[in-house]
Write a structure and sequence with these properties.
Layout: E1 2-6, H1 13-21, E2 38-47, E3 63-65, E4 68-77, H2 92-97, E5 104-110, H3 130-150, H4 152-161, H5 166-173, H6 181-190, H7 203-217, E6 220-225, H8 232-242, E7 247-250, H9 253-264, E8 268-269, E9 278-279, H10 285-301, H11 306-317, E10 320-325, E11 343-346, H12 351-358, H13 360-364, E12 366-371, E13 376-378, E14 388-394
Parallel strand pairs: 1-4, 1-5, 5-6, 6-7, 10-14
Antiparallel strand pairs: 2-4, 3-4, 8-9, 10-11, 12-13, 12-14
Helix pairs in contact: 1-9, 3-7, 5-6, 6-7
Length: about 400
């Protein structure tokens, strides 16, 4: 899984990425501080099965803190996008192409209204962040349209003059951004273009097709950053009303980064995603003052919002579930690690899908599965749920 962090310059995009991944990236108060895409590992937060079995787990990747499991996911932070990015402005096409493999996008906006369309600092409240939500969607739609038009005439000739399958050809053209045949069929159905031959598509049809396809292949969450600034809550409530189709999460990326750094140094005890933290005895007066401000932010927002951004992107936007492999008689792997793995799968996945996800041999040799909690057999077409612990019995 890959989450792409996007937005215009100077909105806190790289600060958020740094806070989530603790990568050393440049986060500066000017446009295009990020040029090359930054890649890192973030974590989605789930309830660990170790609590149910009264045991201590040994994750091979990620970590478990007091029964809270942090499962690693890949993240990429691309340079800030500006109006006209799909036309190459601000190196926009190169930055958009960096997002090809992203499964979902996190759009970081400046909720304080203190950054204009070009990513330049302005008086807080003088710019409407709603324009940024509209701008990015338009740029992404136009980017998809650019992809479609590259070989459009050739594609139309191939499909109309031969027996090539239209859906297969469209799937191939957009495979680079994550389109599948099922997604193409859903897009055609939603745009009412199922029964219209490609040579009859109008320009408006092309754009509508690309817009719907983009929503399927690059679903998006809005991270409303700088939520601790004056007037931000009023703006947030307005945006929620204006964009009911979007998940919008309040965020203070600077607070999250400060807490992560303080936790590293032992100044505070902080579990990402919690709505409180404990200040250690060794904090200096300067640190106490800064942490006091962050305490107010966390109390006001119910946390910094950073972990919630990742969690909601994975579980609400991408609609994933998390499942643990384990044995009915013991939870350890061959190396003695207890509940070493936790896997993320699309909602609706079956036990057989889970077996294939672990290893193709388990899927191909599947015999049955056991629900470790209930000790009951489950069928291969049984739909997995969050927190399931399953043992796969296979002929391998």
């Amino acid at each position: 899984m890959l989450l792409g962090v996007v937005g215009k310059p100077n909105c806190g995009k790289s600060t958020f990425f740094q806070a989530i991944t603790l990568s050393d990236v440049e986060a500066a108060n000017y446009p295009f501080a990020t040029i090359e895409p930054n890649e890192g590992i973030g974590f989605v937060k789930v309830s660990c099965a170790c609590q149910d079995f009264d045991t201590t787990c040994n994750p091979r990747t990620g970590r478990c803190i007091d029964g809270t499991r942090f499962v690693p996911i890949k993240m990429i932070d691309v340079a800030g996008l500006v109006p006209g990015a799909h036309e190459g402005k601000g190196m926009g096409l190169a930055f958009l192409d960096d997002l090809n493999q992203a499964d979902a996008l996190i759009h970081v906006i400046d909720l304080s209204g203190g950054t204009n369309a070009k990513g330049e600092p302005v008086e807080p409240g003088s710019y409407d962040p709603a324009k940024d939500i509209e701008f990015l969607e338009e740029e992404l739609d136009q980017w998809y349209l650019t992809i479609m038009k590259k070989n459009w005439e050739k594609l139309v000739r191939k499909v109309t003059q031969t027996d090539l399958d239209r859906d297969d050809e469209l799937t191939e053209q957009f495979s680079g951004v994550g389109a599948t045949e099922g997604i193409i069929k859903d897009t055609l159905r939603e745009t009412n273009l199922e029964d219209i031959t490609l040579d009859k598509w109008k320009e408006s049809d092309l754009l509508e097709f690309c817009s719907v396809l983009r929503r399927y292949t690059k679903p998006m969450l809005i991270a409303a950053n700088k939520a601790d600034m004056p007037g931000a809550m009023e703006t947030y409530e307005r945006l929620v009303d204006e964009f009911p189709e979007h998940t919008i999460v309040l965020l203070s990326a600077e607070s999250e980064l400060a807490l992560k750094r303080a936790d590293e140094k032992g100044v505070v005890d902080y579990i990402p995603g919690n709505n409180s933290f404990t200040i250690g005895d060794g904090a200096s007066d300067k640190q106490m003052k800064a942490l006091g401000f962050i305490e107010d932010v966390v109390s006001h927002l119910g946390g910094t919002g950073a972990q919630s951004v990742v969690d909601k992107t994975v579980f609400d936007v991408l609609k994933m579930v998390y499942v643990f492999p384990g044995g009915a008689n013991k939870l350890e792997d061959k190396d003695g690690n207890t509940l070493p793995d936790c896997f993320l799968l699309p909602r609706g996945s079956t036990v057989l899908d889970f077996a294939y996800h672990i290893h193709s041999d388990l899927g191909e040799g599947f015999i049955r599965a056991i629900d470790v909690r209930s000790q009951q057999n489950v069928k291969k077409d049984h739909e997995v749920s969050n927190g399931d612990v399953l043992e796969i019995i296979a002929d391998t």
